[in-house]
């Protein structure tokens, strides 16, 4: 994929109004370039008038007009600056949101298979794209227009001389770009990898802190991070050197080129004296033209250097967008869940995780799923929740086959508690009423009571308003599990799935949870629980055993 194709894909992923704004911005930038050119042409014309008819009565008026135009140019430049910054950052913002929506729109298997550092790196890519691609390209659009205008003026003044100078400069730019192209691409690729590796290293260092402390390996972790960041720093250095080199080459060798043109001009009829006006025009033109050409050239190089980043963004943005339509009505669930000849094989695996599962769970039943590690219990729970879809066979809710389209409606029936629950860095209350903008205090209190969290709430300085820390670190493992249970109980879901959700509970807390399950069952809740401990199996209507992915 060439950088231009990636650029097109990234831009195509912007929402329609974002694309319109971007076009508007490009047009405004080009108009700005045209205006600058017009002003420059007016200045040249004015000077020529003065030189031609010094002392004529129109001088004062022309000068006044020029002052007005120069002031207007200032105002227009300010308006363009405001517009560029507003629209460019608006585009950057839309892009970051679009990327995040793709991340949130992933299905469960894609999410599980992806590196967790990817979405974080994607935010960095989006910002890099804004600063290294979009802003330079916009600047280049305005600069290119002005540069073309200046070139047209020079051509009009002395076509052969302007063509010779422009040809030499173009050759120089092309040659210098060819020279740095390889380094730019390589450094850009290394930076693309670097962003993701650096974030992955930070995540691992933070996540494995206890292991690092105990194994005395913090120094090694610091060294690994240093190496990753060092590679990035070196890549960035090489990138900036390669970006700056064409400018130096063009400016120094460009002087020689201009001297060559001067020498050639001096050899024409009339000698150096006749060539002086052309030389002056070329000198002035080059002085104004070169920085503009640098801007255009920088944006071309930026596209090469950010090829890897753009490619990653284009791939992310090609993923399905998050469906933001209102949640569907809950799928009726009255009689039970049926699994018919269900098999499931994880992508890239030869052996199925589940094979030939025939199982019916009645509405209101409490079923325990037991079996050795790796026997397929969690996979079966994920299939029932619609997070995974059977490779063979089918799932029935009552008598309705669970198609892909019905999954969101079915999931509204499900509450799930995993063994290691996610706990947000917020208050106990916000964790229980997770993502509920208007927590129902009565339901929160009931969930607290059912999970035996009352003592904890009473002992905490701010009760339910106490913050639980990053990933719930200020709570014990058992308290975190009970908090996750309370969150599941807060949702009045008719199917509750507990995946080793009580493994960290002491006997007293476990007894409390078992009583809560009895109460839920009395209210008609269907419970599927995965457990290794015998105590949790008490009260179950049925125990289903899995062995190597099959019902035993
Ligand atoms: N995302 C995945 N990709 C590939 N294979 C997986 C994935 N998740 C699980 N597996 C494999 O599928 C099999 C069943 O795993 P599963 O987690 O369902 O077992 P389990 O019975 O819940 O085990 P445990 O008691 O250890 O939690 C295992 O062999 C496991 O390695």
Automatic annotation (TrEMBL):
One GO molecular-function entry: ATP binding
Family annotation (PROSITE patterns): ABC_TM1F, ABC_TRANSPORTER_1, ABC_TRANSPORTER_2
Membrane topology label: Multi-pass membrane protein
Species for this entry: Sphingomonas glaciei
Residue ranges constituting the ABC transporter domain according to the UniProt record: 337-552
One Pfam family in the UniProt entry: ABC_tran
Organismal lineage: Bacteria, Pseudomonadati, Pseudomonadota, Alphaproteobacteria, Sphingomonadales
All copies of domain ABC transmembrane type-1, residue ranges: 23-266
Protein name, per record: ABC transporter ATP-binding protein/permease
Compartments it resides in: Cell membrane
Main subcellular location: membrane
Keyword annotations from UniProtKB, A to Z: ATP-binding, Membrane, Nucleotide-binding, Transmembrane, Transmembrane helix
């Amino acid at each position: 994929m060439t950088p231009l194709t990636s650029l097109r894909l990234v831009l195509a992923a912007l929402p329609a109004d974002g694309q319109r704004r971007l076009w508007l911005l490009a047009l405004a930038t080009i108009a700005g370039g045209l205006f600058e050119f017009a002003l420059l042409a007016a200045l040249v014309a004015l000077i020529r008038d003065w030189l031609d008819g010094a002392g004529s009565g129109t001088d004062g008026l022309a000068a006044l007009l020029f002052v007005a135009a120069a002031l207007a140019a200032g105002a227009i430049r300010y308006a363009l600056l405001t517009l560029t910054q507003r629209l460019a950052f608006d585009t950057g913002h839309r892009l970051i949101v679009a990327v995040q929506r793709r991340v949130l729109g992933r299905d469960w298997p894609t999410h599980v298979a992806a590196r967790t550092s990817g979405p974080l790196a994607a935010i960095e890519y989006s910002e890099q794209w804004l600063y290294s691609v979009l802003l330079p390209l916009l600047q280049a659009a305005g600069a290119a227009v002005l540069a073309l205008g200046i070139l047209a003026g020079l051509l009009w003044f002395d076509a052969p001389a302007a063509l010779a100078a422009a040809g030499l400069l173009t050759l120089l730019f092309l040659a210098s770009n060819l020279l740095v192209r390889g380094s730019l691409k390589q450094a850009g690729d290394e930076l693309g990898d670097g962003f993701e590796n650096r974030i992955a290293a930070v995540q691992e260092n933070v996540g494995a802190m206890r292991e690092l402390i105990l194994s005395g390996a913090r120094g090694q972790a610091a060294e690994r991070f240093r190496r990753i960041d060092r590679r990035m720093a070196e890549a960035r250095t090489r990138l900036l050197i390669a970006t700056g080199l064409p400018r130096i080459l063009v400016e120094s060798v460009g002087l020689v080129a201009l001297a060559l043109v001067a020498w050639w001009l001096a050899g024409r009829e009339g000698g150096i004296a006749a060539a002086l006006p052309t030389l002056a025009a070329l000198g002035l033109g080059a002085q104004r033209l070169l920085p503009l050409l640098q801007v255009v050239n920088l944006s071309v190089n930026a596209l090469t250097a950010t090829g890897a980043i753009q490619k990653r963004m284009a791939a992310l943005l090609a993923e399905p967008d998050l469906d933001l339509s209102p949640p569907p009505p809950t799928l009726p669930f009255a009689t039970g869940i049926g699994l018919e000849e269900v098999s499931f094989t994880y992508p890239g695996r030869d052996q199925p995780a589940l094979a030939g599962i025939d199982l019916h769970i009645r509405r209101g039943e409490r079923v325990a799923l037991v079996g050795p590690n790796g026997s397929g219990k969690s996979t079966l729970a994920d299939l029932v929740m619609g997070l995974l879809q059977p490779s063979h066979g089918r799932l029935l809710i009552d008598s309705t086959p669970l198609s892909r389209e019905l999954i969101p409606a079915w999931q509204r029936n499900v509450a799930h508690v995993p063994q290691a629950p996610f706990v947000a860095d917020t208050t106990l209350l916000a964790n229980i009423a997770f993502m509920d903008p208007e927590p129902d205090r009565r339901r929160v209190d009931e969930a607290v009571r059912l999970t035996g969290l009352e003592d904890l709430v009473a002992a905490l300085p701010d009760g339910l308003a106490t913050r639980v820390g990053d990933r719930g670190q200020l709570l014990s493992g058992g308290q975190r599990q009970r908090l996750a249970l309370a969150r599941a109980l807060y949702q009045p879901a008719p199917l509750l799935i507990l995946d080793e959700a009580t493994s960290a509970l002491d006997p007293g807390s476990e007894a409390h949870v078992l009583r809560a399950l009895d109460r839920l069952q009395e209210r008609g809740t269907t419970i599927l629980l995965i457990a290794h401990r015998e105590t949790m199996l008490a009260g179950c209507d049925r125990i289903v055993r899995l062995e190597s992915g099959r019902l035993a």
